[in-house]
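Weekly sync, protein design subgroup
Attendees: M.S., D.O., the rotation student, P.L. (late)

Item 1: inverse folding check
M.S. brought a backbone from last month's batch and wanted to see whether the design step gives back something sensible before we order anything. D.O. pointed out we never logged the input encoding, so this time it goes straight into the notes. Structure tokens as presented (431 positions):
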């Protein structure tokens, strides 16, 4: 506070972010994280954001949906001079709105490099009914070329799909006590729309990026489409015990390190129809046309045949084997030490599998071989079914609706862990 003004310091900077036990990338964020910190204020507050640019190029911060003075809208070259490297700009707001808002760089590629964050305006009159838990989930996507740590912001397809900066199974499950009323605020600043689906419950959509919806206009569902530059608040009573998945329902957004697998339609001889997942995504390997080489740029969209291929030969999927399965995960080969590497059971694959049209679909992409329970062994994952982590990728996590004894057990383990910057700090303080 300075007088009657709430003051926040926001510093744009390079951030090293571990998005999955097997992948750390270099992104641009704020105050050491991408997405940046969630700023929370109350309706009626006077707010100052002291913004500093520690990036090597100009930037400008936009306050999305704010009905405030034009001079603080953050349009570079329109409402203000871009903030130069080492520069500073002070934004001032009189908060009269309420709801789930956000801030982001108004330079599009910087936004795709991680420069976004949430800004919650709490209402003067508390929302009814009261929610026991209030979560915010950023939906985000990066395209990280092979052997790179830097997202390619020009790419139109994405191989890392994230919830709050983490890809499954490294995402943080939502821990709730059976009977809690739960609010989840989804914020989407990316290139794709995400249909977010919750298992085992029906929720109501109670708010948008424009604030609270009057109760008479709430609508029920179990999937809510969160479009680009939109926020969706949903609320439900967690009355059904269990570990329930919550995830984007786009099939390619439930995967890590892949988005296109256009292969032959059968594994017997036939017309090769596609490339492997890197060529399918327009990612180039080897010479000529090494990733980011000047002679080739990444192609856009989905590859068929030789699109994006650096040679004239079309790459096809080979017969299923453990080795091939490992080849299919190029970004994961650096450190496989902690993976469980569970074997497929003999009866997991039918004897005639290679003669069945469409085989394989999931057989070599997830499951026992992908499990890494130990690498994501955290208090909030306590008690999940062994091997769970092999079946959770991309934009997936759990709502864990725990009966009181299990809930208390998980909470006490989280307290014992006493972690720096625990995402559950507000809940741990209360319980
Ligand atoms: Cu999605």
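Designed sequence read out in the meeting:
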């Amino acid at each position: 506070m300075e007088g009657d003004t709430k003051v926040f310091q926001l510093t744009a900077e390079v951030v090293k972010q571990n998005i999955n036990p097997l992948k750390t990338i270099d992104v641009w964020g704020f105050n050491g994280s991408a997405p940046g910190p969630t700023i929370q204020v109350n309706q009626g507050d006077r707010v100052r954001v002291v913004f500093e640019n520690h990036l090597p190029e100009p930037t400008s911060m936009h306050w999305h949906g704010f009905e405030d003075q034009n001079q603080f809208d953050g349009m570079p070259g329109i409402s203000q001079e871009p903030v130069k490297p080492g520069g500073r700009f002070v934004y001032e707001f009189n908060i009269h709105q309420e709801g789930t808002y956000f801030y982001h760089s108004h330079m599009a590629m910087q936004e795709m490099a991680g420069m976004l964050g949430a800004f919650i305006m709490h209402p003067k009159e508390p929302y009814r009914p009261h929610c026991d838990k209030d979560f915010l989930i950023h939906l985000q996507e990066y395209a990280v070329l092979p052997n790179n740590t830097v997202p390619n912001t020009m790419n139109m397809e994405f191989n890392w799909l994230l919830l709050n900066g983490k890809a499954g199974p490294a995402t943080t499950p939502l821990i709730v006590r059976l009977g809690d009323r739960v609010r989840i605020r989804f914020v989407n600043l990316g290139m794709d729309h995400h249909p977010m689906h919750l298992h085992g419950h029906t929720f109501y959509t109670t708010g948008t990026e424009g604030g609270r919806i009057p109760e008479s206009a709430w609508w029920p569902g179990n999937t809510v489409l969160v479009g680009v530059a939109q926020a969706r608040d949903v609320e439900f009573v967690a009355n059904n015990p269990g570990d329930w998945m919550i995830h984007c329902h786009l099939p390619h957004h439930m995967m890590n390190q892949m988005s296109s697998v256009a292969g032959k339609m059968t594994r017997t001889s036939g017309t090769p129809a596609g490339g492997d997942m890197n060529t399918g995504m327009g990612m180039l390997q080897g010479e000529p046309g090494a990733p980011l080489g000047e002679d080739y740029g990444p192609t856009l969209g989905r590859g068929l045949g030789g699109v994006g291929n650096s040679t004239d030969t079309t790459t096809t999927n080979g017969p299923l084997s453990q080795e091939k399965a490992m080849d299919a995960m190029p970004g994961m080969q650096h450190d496989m030490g902690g993976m469980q590497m569970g074997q497929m059971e003999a009866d997991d694959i039918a004897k005639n599998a290679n003669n069945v049209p469409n085989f394989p679909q999931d057989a070599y992409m997830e499951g026992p071989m992908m499990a890494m329970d130990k690498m994501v062994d955290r208090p909030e994952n306590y008690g999940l079914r062994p091997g769970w982590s092999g079946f959770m990728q991309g934009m997936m996590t759990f709502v864990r609706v725990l009966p009181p004894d299990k809930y208390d057990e998980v909470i006490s383990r989280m307290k014992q862990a006493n972690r720096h910057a625990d995402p559950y700090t507000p809940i741990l303080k209360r319980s």
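Discussion: The pocket of copper (II) ion is lined by residues 192, 194, 248, 250, 253, 395 (CB under 6 Å). The first strand starts at residue 5 and ends at 20.
Action: P.L. to compare against the previous round before Friday.
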